[in-house]
Amino acid sequence: MNLNDYNTSCQPNWCPGCGNFGTWTAWKQAAASQNWDNSNTALVAGIGCHGHLVNFTNINSIEGLHGRPLPVATGVKLANNKLNVFVFTGDGDCLAEGGNHFMNTCRRNHDLTIILHDNAIYGLTTGQTSPRTPMGFKSKSTPLGNIDMPLNPLEVAIAAGATFVARVFCMDIPKLTEIIIAANNHKGVALIDVLQPCPSFNPEYTAQYLKENTYYVDDSYDPSNKLGAIEKAMAWGDKQIACGILYQDKKQKSYEELIPFIQDQAVVSLPLQTRDVSSLFNKLT
Ligand code: SF4
Fold first, then answer.
1. DSSP secondary-structure letter at 243?
2. Cystine design at 229: which of 9, 151, 209, 247 (Cβ 3.0–4.6 Å)?
3. Separation CA 26–CA 242 (nearest Å)
4. Mean pLDDT on 67-72
5. Does residue 104 surpass a pLDDT of 80?
6. Are the beta carbons of 82 and 41 closer than 8 angstroms?
7. What's the confidence (pLDDT) of residue 272?
8. What's the CA-to-centroid distance between 125 and ligand 1, angstroms?
9. Are strands 61-63 and 241-248 parallel, antiparallel or unpaired?
10. Residues contacting ligand 1 via CB (< 6 Å)
């Protein structure tokens, strides 16, 4: 498929300057270069501005309930292990409503690629604080300033058992494209924390702020060092925001690799089997 083949007739309705444009473009570029199409790929989205992406993308998809894209994606992957399954979720969707699912998906190391549209605000509902909003931030829900400590999704993911964790600024489309491909090639849960501006409701993490304060880890960085990765992921602020693949464990098997009968054939295409349960009834009577 060419890049334009991934567009549906629905035009994106995101605000001008929204970070979703960069993330969507990078995913399409990755898809075109890897020949992802309806025969081999499925998209699952949560609720939020990001979730509209599936309506604009010409790939089989489902938009889950608030915070539920991960259990839906888990079901898709277990039903057909051959599919590349991408989860699009926001910081509110993934870390607030879906926080429990996030932690347990990482713990089980499901073979999913999670693209976290992280703009540190609830955009769709017009600007309430999310678990990523910085302390002191004044919003409709926190007119006196946010008193909640922000959550760091990379730190949580690594601690919970995720085996691929990366961070990228959404406007760096070549790098984001490269990392989406690397994440999909990784066997196990892959989290990409995509730093996005929301020009309509987050005046703090602007595109300029994110561009000026992020940097990439260099070749001397060892992504297999778990404690080092947590430390790197925790740094935030003035030119301190590390990007790139911050953690990768290539040895840990994915959840799906531990289930032998889904390796070669999709569950949905397995022949129905009848089982003789008479011995069970005999024991009971
Ligand atoms: Fe993007 Fe924010 Fe507009 Fe939503 S409200 S479309 S996140 S800029």
1. E
2. 247
3. 20
4. 97
5. yes
6. no
7. 63
8. 10
9. unpaired
10. 14-15, 18, 20, 49, 119, 123-124, 198-201
> What mean pLDDT is predicted for residues 89-107?
98
Confidence at residue 168, expressed as pLDDT on a 0 to 100 scale:
98
- Pairing relation of β-strands 164-169 and 241-248? antiparallel
Per-residue confidence (pLDDT) for residue 229, from 0 to 100: 98
Q: According to the model, what pLDDT value does residue 264 have?
A: 82
Q: For 134, phi and psi rounded to 5 degrees?
A: -70, 155
Domain annotation for the chain: domains and CATH numbers: 3-284 (3.40.50.970)
In tens, the pLDDT along 189-240 reads 999 999 999 999 999 999 999 999 999 999 999 999 999 999 999 999 999 9
Closest by CA position to 152, among listed 210, 254, 232, 51: 232
> Hey, what are 2's tokens?
């060419």
**DSSP string of 142-206, one letter each residue:** -TT---SPPP-HHHHHHHHT-SEEEEEETT-HHHHHHHHHHHHHSSS-EEEEEE---TTT-SSS-
The Å distance, Cα 200 to ligand 1 centre, comes to: 6
**pLDDT of residue 283 exceeding 70:** no
Find residue 164's DSSP bridge partners. 190, 248
